Amino acid sequence: MRDLLSRLADIPPVTAGNLALSLLALPLIALLGERVVEIGPIAELAVQWGLVAAVVGVAVSGEDQSFAEIGFRRPTWGDLGYTLATAVAALLVFASTDPVVEALGLPVAGDAGTMTAGVGVGVALARVVTTGIVEEILFRGYPIERLVAYTGSPLVAGGLTWGVFTFAHAAVWPAGNLLQVAAVAAVLTAVYLRRRTLFPVIGAHVLVWALSVMGQYYG
To answer: If I label 136, which of 37, 56, 201, 207 is the partner at 20 to 30 A Cα–Cα?
Structure first.
C-alpha cells in the first residue's frame, strides 16, 4: 500500500489535474444541471464534446501521449465479438439486478439517465453516440492508461477509476440506479482491461443505449 501511494504521489501535476478533469467534471456538470441551472440538450452535447477534447488535448500536448497510449489502439476483428458480448452482458446485468433493487427497496428514478426526455429521436441518438464515446474516453481509456503507467497495475488502475466513477455519481443518482450502473461500469472496465482498446467498450455502450432509445420510441 505504501508503495502504491508513493507511486500515485509521483504523478505530475498536469496529469493529476487532467485525471481529475476526466473523472470528476461530467458528474459535477450533471449535478449543477440538476440542482443549479438547467442545461439544454444541445448545450449538453457541446459541453461533453468540449470536455473530452480538452482531456485528450492535454494528454497529447501536455503529457506527450499518443492517441494509442490513451486507448485509441487499432481494433481487431476479435473486438467485434467483444463488442457484442459486452452489450449482451450489460443488458443481462440490468435485467438481473432489477429484482435485487426491488427486493432491497432501493430508491430508483425512472427517468435517470434517460436519453429521450424532452427530445426527438435524432437528438436522442446524438446523445447515445456522445455518451458512449465521451464516457468511455473519460472513465476508461484515458484514466486507466495513465494510472497503469504510474502504478504498474491494470487491476489497481481499473479499480480506482471504477471506484471514483461510482462515488462521483452517488451525488446524482439514487441508490438503485447507482447499483445497476456501477455493475455495468464494472463490466465495461473489465473488458477494457482485457482488450486495452476503446473500440469494443464504446461500441457496446452505444449499442445498449441505442436499443433502449429505439425501444422507447418504437417499441
So the answer is: 37
